[in-house]
Amino acid sequence: MNSEKLALLLTREMPYGKYKGRKIADLPGHYLGWFAREGFPSGELGGLIALMYELDHNNLRMLLDPLRQAQRSA
């Protein structure tokens, strides 16, 4: 896991679906779980959703807190 990918979770938005426009980092756990069961999209989007699923599933969302704070300060 690299910090660049973690930072992308805070900037990339969901391009479609019920949560269109919401940052990947802010997608709810049940939606991430749905992707895990049904299959992640291909490409960068799928990789980011899969990463966010792993963070959520393993109760590691707090790893994004320092990055969120840095974004607010910038």
UniProtKB/TrEMBL annotation:
<protein>
    <recommendedName>
        <fullName>Cytoplasmic protein</fullName>
    </recommendedName>
</protein>
<dbReference type="Pfam" id="PF12843">
    <property type="entry name" value="QSregVF_b"/>
</dbReference>
<dbReference type="InterPro" id="IPR024530">
    <property type="entry name" value="QSregVF_b"/>
</dbReference>
